[in-house]
Structures are given as structure tokens and as C-alpha cells.
Queue: 2 jobs
Job 1
Amino acid sequence: MVAASQAQTAGTGRRRSRRLPIVLKPFVALLYVLVIVAVWAGYQTAADVPRFLLASPTEVGWQLVDLAGDGTLWTHLGYTVRNIGLGFAIGALVGVLLGVLVSRSQVVDAMIYPFLVVFQAMPKIALAPMFVLWFGLGLTSQLILIVSLSFFPILVGTVTGLRQVNSGYQDLATIIGMKPVAKLFRIDIPAASPSIFAAARVAAVDAMTGAVVAEWISSSQGLGYLLVEANSSYQVPTLMAAIVVIVAVGVALYQLVTFVETRALSWRDPVSA
Amino acid sequence: MSAPTGSSVDNQTTTAATVPTGTLLQISGINKEYRSERGKVVHALHDVSLDVRQGEILAIIGASGCGKSTLLRIMAGLDSVTSGKTIWSRQPTPGRDIGYVFQESVLLPWRTVLRNAAIGPETLKIPRQQYEPRVRELLSLVGLTDFADALPRELSGGMRQRTSIVRALAHDPALLLMDEPFGALDQITREKLHDDLLRIWTATGKTIVFVTHSVDEAAYLADRVVVLSPHPGRVRAVHDVPLPRPRNAETKLDPRFAEFQALLRGEL
């Protein structure tokens, strides 16, 4: 009895030392934010930074409240989030589709590979002005930039994942008479999904970068536009408020993908995950 | 990966009335060559002929590199032959007539034990209410009833291999092929699975062909043992196992059990 309870304590002790209890996680995050804000405010006061260079946390806070109050924030936020969502969805679809084609066909692989090398080496942002030139100052060129940024990690993740699929599954499929298309959807893509999800986390953040940069260049709406507008009219609190919102969107996005991933991949061995 | 040098298995497979009664599958004069990665031609099987009889347990035994797994893969249609014939009493339909147990369990980690085991009938689009009772019955035969909803990562090696055996039997194939199914398991688990397998065989009357490098496994389970010798793989001998059924703990005390193992060891 004593031994059993001791063993149990030892067990929970080991677990606690390895992983933070889930309830404490938000507090740790909050602590981070508080520390950053405190350092920011402290520096602001101590170094006496001019207000047109760095706004104080309270100013930015009130600016956020104002922007939220008159509805400006929600319009811009809604626009950007919608574009991220749409662009990411299209990018993911294109990425998985191309990934499947590359891994299935040596011809497609040979055709696409040189393009991919160039595309990977090129800063995609540099294409933004071209997109504006070709597709105009509108939603189309914004979406194209987002898609071009977010499809790439997903494509690489899909190809990597599909190439690592246990070759024994092919024998299994042959024995049970499973057709190639059925095998793709019922064996290969689920087996590759950990790699696809890892890529999706990167792609989600890339999609956000794309959305903000695109609005910067070719939009009259969205958080990126809010940034540019505030910047050009020297409204530092608005500029910084927009940055805070963009960071929040980025974190939320990353969390969302991680949440979906944890749900979808609950079958994974926690040790190897 | 090795590229087969021969033609596809399909045009080497024949259904003929010439198969003797009671024979499920006749293998005649099979040669298998493949090119290794360095371009060397490897002669894996040389003029291999043997019969698989309806309802028997046949063991194929040999040292590593004797082509025993290749021979089993050829029976399963997973590999082609360079020359020779596999003649079936009744041509097998893919996904229906052959069950295969791989060396490693090859389970899908996102599927539960039940859904892993049921992937065969599911692929054949058999309604769930038809196959599920059968799969559950097979699971209970190997003591996995309580683990039907468990994921593979929650199972021990022995339980995974049991699941894989149930999967191979779920679509009720006439022939069960097993490639060193117990090779990766510890002795205690192996012996339990041997008795599981004999119980399944008694209950279902399947024809079972299995590959092993274990002399006692071959002697304990099989009706007949084919001994292959390596480089290239050839049939060295075919023996009837001189042990009565049912086989159980007493079988292992039978002096003939030890004698027969000694005979096999002498030929390996």
C-alpha cells in the first residue's frame, strides 16, 4: 500500500517535471506579455523617448480601445482575417494537390523541381509589385500573393510526408485489393498528415505575412493598410496598435492550426510526436 | 529497391484442371532473378516446385537469404517470377482469397484495432453489420476483445501481430500466408501466438503457409515442412511432420518432436 502510493507520487512527480500543467500555461503567456509591457513602459519613461518614435503602452491601449469603439478595427481585422483564411485554404489545396502529383509522377517531379528551386530561393515578397502590375490593385493580386507564400511549405510538407510513408502499406493495399486512389485517401494522406500539419503551421504564418504585405501595397482596407496609413500620417499609437493586433492574429492563427493538429493527430504516439 | 527482370506474374499464373485433387496451389519450376542496386543479378530462387494442399499448415524454413520470403510473396502475387508457373485450383481474386501477415504488423496507427482488422472487408465494400460480428469473433479468438477500440500505439508487439493476423483473416480468405509472423516477438509471446494460431486453424480450417527460421515453430505448427537451401534458393527437402494433432504442451514432450527438430537442424 505504502509502496503503491509512493510509486504513484513518483509517477506524478515525473510527469510534472516533464510538462507544465495545462492550467498554468495561459498564466505563463500572460506573464510574458506583462514583462514585455513593463520593459517597454520602463524604457519609455527612463530614456524619455520622443512620443513620435515610440508610444507608451497606455497610449497604444487607449488607441486600441478607440479603434475598437468606432468599428475601424473590426472592419480592418475582418478583411485581413478573411483574406488569410481564403488565401491559406487555396494555398493548402494547391500545395497538397501539387505535392501528390510530384510524389506520384516522376514527370511532374522533373517538371516542377527546377521551378521549385528557383521559387524557394526567391523572396516571394519581391513578386508583389509584379502581381499588382498583372492583376491590379485589388483582392486578386492580394490573394495571389498570399497563396504563393502559403502553398510552398505545404507542398514541401506533403512531398516529404508522402515519401516517408511505410512501403509495407503498398503490399497491404495489394493484398486487400485497394485501388491506388483509395490508397491515396485512406492510407497515404493520413500517414503523411503529421508532416502536412507541421508545414501548415509555417504556411499559416506565411499567409499572414502575405496578407499584411499585400494590403500594404495594394489595398485600401485591412490591418496592413492601417499600418501604412498610420505610418504615413505619423500616428505612432495607431501604428503600434495595428502591430499589436497583427501579432495577436499571428499567435491566434498558430494556436488554431496547432489545436486542429492535436485533434486530428491524436492517434500519434505522444513520445514520438 | 530491385527491378524484376522477368515478366509480370499475371501471365505466368494459370488455372488448370491438371492440379491434383486436394491441392490448392501448385508451384512448378519457379525461377526468380532480380537485379540488385549495384546491377548484379541475384538468383533468388532456382527451379522451385512444391504443392500446397487444401487445409494444411505448411512451413517453409531456411537460413536467411534462401528466398523463403520471396517464395511467399510470389504466392501472394506481391512479386513476379522470372520463369515457372504458379497453378491455382481456383484463381484467387485480389483482396478476397489471400490473407497475408507481414513480418512487422503494418497497422495503420490512426485506426483502432477493430478498424485495422476490418480494412479488408471494408475495402471490399461489405456492409459493416455483416463483417463486424465476424471481426469481433476473430478478435475474441486471439484475446483482443477488450482492445477493439484501442489504437496500435497502446498495444504490445504481440497484440499488434495478433491484430495483424485477425486482419489477414477478416475477409475470410481460403489461404493464409505468413512471413515470419512471430520473428520479432519474445519466446513467451511466440508460444502463446502459436496456440492462438492452432486454435484459429481448428476453428476455420484455413490453408496456412508460413515462413520461419525457427525449427521448433515449424515442427510444432506444421503438417509439412519445406526446407530451402540458400544461394540460390532451392528445395532441399519436404517432410511430413510425424506428430499427432492436436498439438499442445504434451507435443513438446514427445521424443519425436525433438528428433524431428534435430532432423531439420541437420538440413539447415
Note: The first helix of chain A runs from residue 2 to 18.
Job 2
Amino acid sequence: MMEFLSSPASIRSDLPFGFWLHLLVFSIGIIALLLTSVIIFIWFERRLVGRFQLRLGPNRAGPIGIFQSVADVIKILTKEDIIPTRADKLLFWLAPIISFSPVVVTLAVVPVAGGALLADLNVGILFIMAMSSIISVGVFTAGFASYNKYSLLSSMRVVAQLVSYEIPLILSLVGVVMLTGSLSLDDMVNAQTIPFILLQPVGFFIFFIASLAEISRSPFDLLEADSELVAGYNIEYSGMKFATFYLTEYCEAIVLSAITATVFLGGWQGPWLPPIIWLLLKIGLVFSVIVWIRATLPRLRVDQVMGFAWKFLLPLAVLNILITGLFITLWPEAPAWINGSANLLLLVMYVLIRSRFFRPGGTSVGAS
Amino acid sequence: MVILSERTMKVTHSTDSVFINLGPVHPSTHGVFRMRAHVDGEVITEIEPIFGYLHRGIEKLAEGKSYRQIIPLTDRLDYVSSMTNNLAYCMAVEKLAGIEVPERAVYIRVIMSELQRILSHLLGIGSFFNDMGTFFTPFFYMFVQKEKITDLLEMVSGQRLLYNYMRFGGVSHDLPDTFLPALNRFLREMPAEIDKYEHLLNENEIVLARSKNVGVISREMAINSSVSGPVLRATGVNWDIRKVDPYSYYDLFDFDVPVGTKGDCYDRYRVRIEELRQSLRILEQAISKLPAGRVLNPVPLRFRPPAGEAYSHVESNKGELGFHVISDGSDKPYRLHVRAPSLLNLSALREMLIGWKLADAIIIFGSIDICLGEVDR
């Protein structure tokens, strides 16, 4: 297993049952990696947020609290599983599964090393987007089936927010796809002699913000706005079903960190260390930024969230496609630094023009 | 565009407003307050505040207790401003019985009520940003400083929440030797802390978008509904009991009354932050002027004030806190009434909330900064 992790190549298909062995090893590997990293990342987030808030965070269970998540998991699994009397039982039962499975499936197209991925789909990015849209169905189902007004309000926000942010999310990746000439994530990593974050800063900016909204992390955590909707869509869930939602939330964060790392930060590439370690380090980096934002920013209002997606991110994404397309058609052999700085200039100018310094009255981005 | 789509919606299909219960058990209600809200989508069309879940009958209980036994009861009104409640009640009884207070005790009372104001405002601002969704970070920043004040108040009273420190004719104990050095240390580091809060929060784009022009209450509206304290001052009314009817030598202190301009949530936050600075100024002056001498003119344990009535009011952290005591000459008050600022500040709540979105309602409610112990009594 370790040898496979450190070797850049995939499992050779000329072995006996090579294809099935490949599927088996990678499926188990992905699930094991995801679940263990969720446990570690929950602990990591709580420690990090603790530091942001001038406190220690969990520090009692094990050395520096490393077993805190284990204790939480045991607690949550031994809780009584309650289904509200008037809930739609089938949908209530299905919703955690609908929202959890697409998240795991998404990792199938993320390479952990050169050519080492479960399924080298030639439409990898499209696959990721399709799968991440299914999550919103699960979340909506959960809120709708619970027969609770808070979760119903949350479901309304889910539909509005997740569907709106998918558009800038997809459009932000078009620039990268144009530079790579392929939709496969493996090709994208191989194409990144310079990480795409330098060539496509605008794309990265939009993708990162839109993915924060997609995984409903702060400042877009309207779905589980604890001060307004108590817990949002999962308010009626307890026991293993709640654990599944909790797991989904963190898996989403990790998967989107993985995709960000793969598409914009060079994926598994890096000197000295084995590829998988590089990938994990980059995931950790992106995840830390997500936690940083969570510990820093207040929540936006629902109309401001929508306004931000449609009035700010969408035009910027279209402009980014335009600029990238112009460079590719008119000056394909342009040096990377010109390409990147033109993109960065676009970002800076756009943000400045749209910021309140240029608007009388100081109305903010989201305000209509 | 928006108007068009709304009109077409009305023609094609009708929608019912959803009735949603905010409270009594809800994370944003700061206790057991309840709002029955009718929402059309996210917009609140009708709201009915309901309180009384924490009613303990303190005013009635007071009729069965001797005057001194009521001091601990006043602790339990607004439990984050116990010192101020003690002060207001003691002042009312002192006015009734004509008791003199030693000069040192008056200064100690000023120090205590200003420390209590800083504590309460820190908690108020912190939970306001929690309501806005900051995941506890500002709250913890302020809680660190709040703990230092709690330590100071513990030094003088032995308690960390309900102090029971003031007595008729002074305060129960003199300041311990460790108090003034600790207070000086606190005063030295607090201005930098306040600068830090303002640096982090004042110009945050999301804070501005969420709180500016949200929950506006006009000056007339505020005065008509008897709103007081920072909520009133945020509308631009310069009304502070410490200035307009000075008590406890407040006329000898040099401090400003911060006022807002618009009366929105942001102004309320700014007024509170600025009041922290003014309280620090008062504290510094009080320490430098603190005279030596007795701290208590003892009154008999079971003392009987002459028949009559007295009303005394102070500028509490939430607004004008008044105690009306009626004596029939016995050792128990005939009637005690509390003018609770939190309750009266809520009287404009309905007008402030209708038409705003649910998320706004939460932060408007949070910006009023009520304490349920005082609302329900």
C-alpha cells in the first residue's frame, strides 16, 4: 500500500485482474483517506479556530486533544436516532445518503500522483460539477422532509444559493480548461509547469469564493445560520444521520480543497516529498484559509449573497473568459508572466471599480 | 425588474406567509424571549414579541422582604449589571430615608458602575457580532477583557456575577489593597484593546453591509416609545442621566456623551464602543480623585424609613434604570417598582423589525442589547 502511495504510476493493468485491483485499491484508499482526514481536519479546525479566538481549543482527549474527534464520533454514534412524527420518512432517511455519496465520488477524478487516480475521465471537471450539484438536492431534501419551518427556510436558501453559485464556479474553471485544452484533472496537473493560480488569479479568486458558497462555509453559511435558523436543514437530525451530514460538510471542504489544490496549486507536483504528501499539504493549506475566513468574517444576508453571485462574480467570470480567450487566440506564445499579470490587473481593477470607494453613498457590493 | 416579477407572482399564484417562532428557546434571543414572526419568504410581515418566560415576581417578592434583603434581589434583574442595579436601588432608599453616603463610597460606586458598564457593553457588542454570524471570534476577544473586569469585581465583592456589594449609606467593604494596581493595569491595556476591536470591525465590508441603515429607528419614534440608553443616543438624542440629572458626583467628572446620527444598528455599535472609552476616562478620574475615609455610614439592620415615596434613576448600561420605592413606615417596602430599560427599549421592536429580513431581525434584536432578567423581572 505504501509503495503504491509513493510511486507515481497507477496500478498496472497488465497484472492479473489489474482493472479490478485498481478499482478496489483506489476505492478503499479514497474512502480511508477521506474519513481519516475528516477526523484529523475537524480536530485541526477546532484547534486553529481556538487560536484565532485567543483560546486553546480541545486539549483534553489525548496529547493536544488529538482524540477529541474520536470522542465526538463515539458520542454522536451512540445517540438516539429520532425521526419526527410528521417527517417524510423515506426522504428523511435518503437525504444524508444523497448528500454524502456525491462528495466521495468526486474524489475519483482527483489524481494523487502522476496518472494515479481512480477514473481518468476525460470530462473530469464536468463530472465534479455534476456531482457537486447533487449535494444541493440532498440538502434540500433534508430540509424539506424534516417538517420543520427552520429547515424549510434553510432549504429555500439552499436552492437559491447553491444553484446561483454553481454558475460562477463552472465559469471560473473555463479559463483553466482553455489553457489546458482538456477537461481531465490529470492533464490539468501535468499542464501546470507554473501553477494556474499565477496564470489565472481571477479564476482562482472566483472559484475559491464560489466554492465557499457551495460548501456553505462562512461567510456564506446561510444554510446552517445558527443565530437565525438554529441549525438549518439538519435541525431535526440526530445520531448517525446527523453524523453523515457533519461528515458531508467536512468531506465537501476537503474535496473542494483538493480540487482547488489540483486545479490551481499544481496538485501533487512538488520537489523532494512524495506526491501524495504534497497533495495533502496543499489541501491542508487551502483548508486553513477556509478556517481562517470562518473565524474572521460575519455572515452575509441572503439577498447580499445572491447579489454577490450574480452582480459581482458572474460578470467577472465572463470577463476572465474573454481575456483568456483573447490571449489564446491573438498571442498564444505570450510569456506566462504577461498572461498572469494581465489577469491579475483585471482582477484588481474590477474589485476597485466595484468597491465602495468608487460609489457615492458607500453602498456595498451585495446591496441592491 | 423586481417589481415586475413580484407582480406576476401575485397574479399567477398566491403564497401564504409562514408563521415562525423565534424563541423562547432560540440561540439568538439572549435568554427566553420569544417573537412570533410571520414571514413572507424571508421578509417579516408581522411580528409579536412575547415575554414573561423569566418572570420571577421580583417586585412582589420585594414587598415581603426587609429593605436590605432586597439588594440581592436587584442583582438578579439585569445580571450583567448587578452593581448598577444595586446602586440605583440603594440611591432610592437613601433618598427616601435621607441617608448620607461617605465621599469615598460614592467614588467607589462610580468606579464599580463604570466597570460594570464596560463589562456589559463588551458582552453586548460581542453577542451582537455573534448574531451577525462571526462564529464567536469578536465575542472571545471581548470576553478576555470582560474576565479581567470580573476578576476586579470579584476582588471587592467575593462574587463573579451577582455582587451584592452596595449598602444603604455606602458599600459593604473597602477596596482591597490589590484592587487599585489591578485596575490601573486594566486601564493601561484597555485603550489598545478598544482600538483593536475598532480596527477589526468598524470598516469590515460585511459588517457595514449588514448593519448600516438596518433597523433604523427615528428620533421621534425613539422618544415616543420611551427608549433610552445607547439605542436612544444612536438616534442622535443627547440624553444621558449622568449628564441631565447627575448623581454620585458625575457632574464633577469630565466625559462626553457619544451620539449617533442615523439610529441604525451600526450607530448603536459605535455608540457602545465609544462609551467604553468614556467609561475609561471616568475611571481614570475617579481613581485620581479617590479620597480616603470611611466607606459606610451604618444603618440599623432592620431599619424603618419614614413613610413616603422616592424615585431614583441612574444611567444603566442599557438605559435609564429607575427604582420607585413606597414606604409605609414599616421595615418592608409597601411597593417597589423597577423602570427596566431593557423592557422599554423593546417597545419599539415591532416597528423596527417589520419589513426586514429574518437575518436582519436577529441583528436588530441583538443591537438593542436586552437582558431578559430585567425584561421579565
Note: Chain A touches chain B at residues 49, 52-55, 149-150, 152-153, 156, 218-219, 221-222, 225-228, 230, 294-304, 356, 362, 364-368 (CB under 8 Å).
